[in-house]
TrEMBL record:
GO terms for molecular function: double-stranded DNA binding. It comes from the Bacteria. This is Prophage protein. Residues 23-70 form a coiled coil. Signal peptide: none annotated. Keywords: Coiled coil.
Amino acid sequence: MTEEKEPYKVKNDSELNWVLGKYKEHQIQCDEYEIQAEESRKAIEEKYNAELYEIEMRRLKLQAEEQKEMDYFKGLAEQYYLTLETKSPKKTINGSVRFSKKENVSYDDNLLSELKEKGFGKFITAKTKTTESVDKKALKAFVKDGGQLVSEDGEIVEGFKFDKTEEFTVKV
C-alpha cells in the first residue's frame, strides 16, 4: 500500500520565510533566463542584420552593374533606331523598341487656392458641398505643351507644370 503524501503547508513565520526565500531564488533564476534570452536575441539580430546588409549591398552592386550593361545596349538600340526612316515601333524576336510620349505633370498643394485667386474657376470642381478639387484633366488639356498656366494679367500660376517628352523604350 502506498501512502499519499499530504501537500506542504506553511505553519509559522519561519516556514513562510523559507517559502519566500525559495520563491525569490526561482524569481532570480527566471530573470536570469530572460536576460540570457534577450542577449541571445540581440546577438542573433545583429548577426542577421549584418548578413541582410551584406546581401542588400551585394544586390545593389550587381543590379548597378546590370543596369550599366542594359543602358549600354539600350543606347546601341536607340542609335540604330534613330537611323531608321520611319519611327514606328520596331519588333524583333527578343523584343521591341520605340519612342513613347511621356507627360510630365506636377501639381503643388497650393494649386487650388492659387487657381481661385487668379480667376481660373473653370478648373475647379466641387466634390461635395464643402470640398472642391482641381480638375486636373481639364487643366492639362487647356495648358497642352506650353507647360505653364498664365492668368489674364500675365501672372504665371505657380504649382502646376506640364510638358511632354519622348522617351526611348525597350520592351523584352
